[in-house]
Amino acid sequence: YPGLALRRSWEGRVILRIKVLPNGRAGSVEVTKSSGKPALDDAAVEAVRNWKFIPAKRGDTPIEGFATQTIDFKLPE
């Protein structure tokens, strides 16, 4: 959770479109629906850039593909 967002009690939902490379890494990450708070959007993008994915395959060969991911930022109650 971004520090600024925590201090200001921001919550939100970010929807991302991720290009998944054959090696399972994120090639590009695009915000398709913003939370309305750049700090939350940026944190979501940065988090996903560090994820490892299982790539799509054509036969036994890993290929490039796309994934959609929703990230919810919700403060603990």
UniProtKB/TrEMBL annotation:
| Topology within the bilayer | Single-pass membrane protein
Q: Which SUPFAM superfamilies match?
A: TolA/TonB C-terminal domain (SSF74653)
Single GO biological process annotation from the record: transmembrane transport
Keyword set, alphabetical order:
Cell inner membrane, Cell membrane, Membrane, Protein transport, Transmembrane, Transmembrane helix, Transport
Question: Which residue numbers delimit the TonB C-terminal domain?
Answer: 1-77
- Which Gene Ontology terms of cellular component type are present? plasma membrane protein complex
Query: Zinc: is it a keyword of this entry?
Result: no
The lineage's top-level taxon is Bacteria
Q: Which InterPro entries match?
A: TonB-dependent_transducer (IPR051045), TonB/TolA_C (IPR006260), TonB_C (IPR037682)
Entry's localization field: Cell inner membrane
Q: Which PROSITE patterns match?
A: TONB_CTD (PS52015)
Decide whether keyword Secreted is in the record: no
- Which molecular-function annotation in GO is an example for this chain? energy transducer activity
**Matching NCBIfam families:** tonB_Cterm
- Family (UniProt): Belongs to the TonB family.
PANTHER family xrefs: PROTEIN TONB (PTHR33446:SF2), PROTEIN TONB-RELATED (PTHR33446)
* Protein name listed in UniProt: TonB protein
